[in-house]
Design a protein that fits this description.
The chain has 500 residues and is mainly β. The chain is built from 1 helix and 41 strands.
Length: 500
């Protein structure tokens, strides 16, 4: 149905022809010169979600035709008309009125912002625009959407920083404030980015922040707070830092009692991984890297700060064969390098004086080296003494014969002999077995030979040794009685030695 202008005008003439069954009326007079469309120009501001009322009143006379509402000056599509189907959220304020063509738009949205025109059309085979109102400018005050926080896609180690972003959209006007807080303590961040840069019916905001992470952040939370003129109170979004936090364990390996441990005493090695997060952590305590001897693990415990602790212990006797045994504590956390701690069992041994001696590895090596050096020195000394003794015995084996020799002049054979001139001859014989032979040495001042008889001559006469005596002139000795001279004179010594 087309909404028509009301009544007749005093300036026009309505002519009606009444043929059978039909009534034809025509409008004569000025073409809508008395027609008025009253529309407030605005601007009107409405908050998103509320209902917008657009007022339009038609006064005066005009040709038959309807009234439509358009958004924008292009008239591309009507948002309301008595004909056609339009969104249910657009309704007429006074249905059926011939003068009030006001409409309501419920649940207003940011995209509803713009300029609305109330337009009178002339009826015909093709409607034509007759007159338009000045247009009402509408701005939608849109509240920001609930902010959203995005963090790292994988866990971040404590002691480093993580990047977070906060977004919100659909708000208008453009001005907006974003604040980051960690446990209600403000964190500095760069100015947020608002898009698009130019005018728009609604906007989007993006803010980023770098947050330092600590071991104590398991129970901490990050807050993105947004303030806008359309909001009665700030909007807040919360992010639990434990969802992206990784806290490495503190590994400890202790012995009770502490090193050095008395021999054959009971000792307990305890391995602990403390203060780690999350729970995806395992612990193992091994002896000499053997899986056959491992510690007994305790159930995982949660600490007051939200972190966890694991413990394992291994109890044994400090026997001598376990001295210098290596105990290793291994802690494995998901996707992280294995953390290790190693301790060596050091056993204390009691000496004769009841003094404890710790068998430290370095000291033990020193003792072994010292013992080896001392043994080598003893062997060397014994060897030297042996060679000295052997040489001494060898020196004692030769027999020295004291001979008297007359002083010889280099050229005189008739020179008087000097009884004090003595000549020694060294005869080197191998020592015969001791049989206490009687050795007779006859010395004559008139003779230059020595007759030495050691044992009775052996039957074999081939064992005869001759010694060529190289006479050496020695200092004079006190005079002694001259022995009876031998019948023969010789400068050779005839020595009979018993065969070996």
């Amino acid at each position: 149905m087309t909404m028509d202008a009301p009544g007749l005008s005093s300036r026009g003439l309505l002519t009606c022809l009444l043929p059978p069954l039909l009534l034809f009326c025509s409008w004569s007079g000025a073409k809508g010169q008395d027609l008025e469309i009253l529309q407030p120009p605005g601007p009107l501001s409405v908050s998103a979600g509320e209902t917008l009322t657009l007022t339009c009143t038609v006064r005066g006379s005009g040709p038959p035709g309807g009234v439509k509402w358009h958004k924008g000056s292009d008239r591309k599509q009507a948002i309301y008309s008595e004909r056609g189907q339009y969104p249910s959220r657009v309704t007429r304020v006074v249905p059926g009125s011939e003068t009030d063509f006001s409409i309501r738009i419920s649940n207003i949205r940011p995209e509803d912002a713009g300029t609305y025109y109330c337009v009178k059309y002339r009826a015909g085979s093709q409607e034509t625009e007759l007159k338009s109102g000045v247009g009402t400018e509408v701005s939608v005050i849109a509240t920001p959407s609930q902010p959203s926080i995005e963090g790292p896609t994988s866990r971040v180690l404590s002691g480093t920083s993580a990047t977070f972003s906060c977004t919100s959209d659909g708000f208008s006007p453009r001005a907006i404030k974003v604040t980051w807080l960690k446990d209600n303590t403000r964190i500095g961040s760069p100015e947020p980015t608002v898009l698009p840069e130019g005018d728009s019916i609604s906007y989007q905001v993006l803010s980023t922040v770098q947050v330092p992470l600590t071991r104590d952040d398991v129970k901490s939370q990050l807050i993105c707070q947004i303030e806008h003129e359309t909001l009665r109170s700030p909007l807040r979004e919360f992010f639990k830092l434990r969802d992206i936090l990784r806290v490495p364990p503190r590994v400890k390996l202790e012995a009770n009692p502490a090193n050095p441990v008395p021999l054959n005493e009971s000792v307990t090695f305890s391995c602990s991984a403390e203060g780690f997060y999350p729970e995806d952590t395992t612990l193992a305590l091994t002896l000499n890297s053997s899986l056959s001897e491992t510690g007994t693990a305790e159930p995982m415990a949660q600490n007051g700060d939200g972190t966890f602790t694991l413990r394992s212990s291994l109890k044994l006797n400090a026997t001598e064969e376990r001295n210098q045994s290596a105990f290793t504590c291994l802690v494995m956390q998901n996707s992280q390098p294995v953390a290790t701690e190693t301790s060596v069992l050091n056993i204390r041994v009691l000496t004769e004086g009841s003094e404890s001696v710790s068998m430290e590895p370095d000291e033990k090596k020193i003792y072994i080296i010292s013992a080896v050096v001392c043994a080598l020195l003893v062997v060397l000394v014994v060897t030297i003494i042996y060679f000295i003794h052997a040489r001494h015995n060898k020196d004692k084996e030769p027999t020295s014969v004291r001979l008297h020799e007359s002083e010889k002049a280099s050229g005189g054979a008739n020179q008087e002999p000097d009884p004090n001139n003595v000549t020694y001859a060294d005869l080197n014989f191998e020592k015969a077995p001791k049989k206490s032979p009687q050795q007779v040495v006859e010395i004559s001042q008139q003779s230059e030979y020595a007759s030495i008889q050691t044992v009775p001559p052996a039957p074999n006469d081939e064992n005869v040794t001759y010694a060529d005596l190289d006479m050496v002139h020695l200092s004079k000795a006190p005079k002694r009685p001259a022995p009876q001279p031998e019948e023969t004179s010789s400068e050779y010594a005839s020595v009979q030695v018993r065969g070996k």
